[in-house]
Write a structure and sequence with these properties.
Strand 8, helix 9 and strand 9 form a beta-alpha-beta unit. By secondary structure, this protein is an alpha/beta fold. The radius of gyration is 19 Å and the shape is globular. It has a nine-stranded parallel sheet. Pathway: Cofactor biosynthesis; biotin biosynthesis; biotin from 7,8-diaminononanoate: step 2/2.
């Protein structure tokens, strides 16, 4: 990594000025800085599993799992540990280096946390990085997860503090910042980003990124999601976001947080290969890998492999998977 000093004092007007740059100039700056911190042709891959689906008490306007929205999603209980481990093993076989587990809770009870800790320890034992998203945490809960070996905790800001109340009313923006502080104080890596295309303005996108890049320490992982419109949610009829505006946001995130992994997350199923390629050029260097993201569709693993090959991009895990496949009979290789 470069010795460049990371800034934590970005002003909103400075960030808006980045958004306003000519598209080619913005991508050039982002790609240049990206190369100073990362291999531009390397992508980190994570896999995400919903370990407890539906019946969430929150009213997030984008989410199919809210009990307040009529989306037809059936609630499911917390998965057995052995099923989670089997899913993690399958994800590792397909090239994922990090396994993320999400539960539709406002915040976990201490009893539920004990079962999740078993999952963390078991997945960690497979040699994979672990990540959780369980809602709000207390300081004590964050400490317990750290003791269990948790590597990352995901808690997105979702949008700007100014626009936040248009999307969520059951918890405040400050609640989210407090959980991030608990996670950081416990020594767990922070994964935090937002969702684009919820009707927010460019200024809102700049403001959300400002909240992230002015944290005392930048998040190690910054997922940028494109709204997946789900019938029955309040945001279902929201106007589509200009794809180039999404790419711009990726580029600005890279310029503000050059040492962070910027992840293409939800919404990739709606993105063309060309749009994803522009996102990689803009500085994205992580993706979720697999067929589903919690309850929404994600590009199939084979499509991801094909796209990365077409772009000449690799991951260490994908290379290992391909080498392993080359050493087994063809029928088994095709099955993997």
């Amino acid at each position: 990594m470069t010795d460049t000093i990371l800034r934590h004092d970005w002003r909103l007007d400075e960030i808006e000025a980045l958004f306003d740059l000519p598209f080619n100039d913005l991508l050039f700056q982002a790609q240049t800085l990206h190369r100073a911190y990362f291999d531009p042709n390397q992508v980190q891959m994570s896999s995400l599993l919903s370990i407890k689906t539906g019946a969430c008490a929150e009213d997030c306007g984008y989410c199919s799992q809210s009990a307040k929205h009529a989306t037809g999603l059936e609630a499911e209980k917390l998965m057995p540990v052995e099923d989670v481990v089997a899913a993690a093993e399958a994800a590792k076989e397909k090239g994922a280096s990090r396994f993320c587990m999400g539960a539709a809770w406002r915040n976990p009870t201490d009893k539920n946390l004990e079962r999740v800790i078993e999952m963390v320890e078991a997945v960690h034992g497979l040699g994979m990085e672990t990540c959780l998203t369980l809602g709000m945490l207390t300081q004590d809960q964050a400490g317990r997860l750290r003791s269990a070996g948790l590597d990352y905790y995901n808690h997105n800001l979702d949008t700007s503090p100014e626009f936040y109340g248009n999307v969520i009313t059951t918890r405040t923006f400050d609640d989210r910042l407090q959980t991030l502080a608990h996670v950081r104080d416990a020594g767990i890596n922070v994964c935090s980003g937002g969702i684009l295309g919820m009707g927010e303005s460019r200024r809102d996108r700049a403001s959300m990124l400002r909240e992230l890049c002015t944290l005392p320490r930048h998040p190690e992982s910054v997922p940028i999601n494109l709204l997946v419109k789900i019938e029955g949610t309040p945001l279902y009829d929201t106007e589509d976001l200009d794809p180039l505006e999404f790419v711009r946001t990726i580029a600005v995130a890279r310029l503000l947080m050059p040492g962070s992994y910027v992840r293409l997350s939800a919404g990739r199923g709606e993105m063309s290969d060309e749009m994803q390629a522009l996102c990689f050029l803009a500085g994205a260097n992580s993706i979720f890998y697999g067929e589903r993201l919690l309850t929404t569709e994600n590009p199939e693993a084979d499509r991801d492999r094909q796209l990365l090959r077409r772009l000449g991009m690799k991951t260490e895990q994908l290379l290992e998977t391909e080498v392993k496949a080359a050493k087994v009979p063809c029928d088994k290789a095709r099955a993997g």
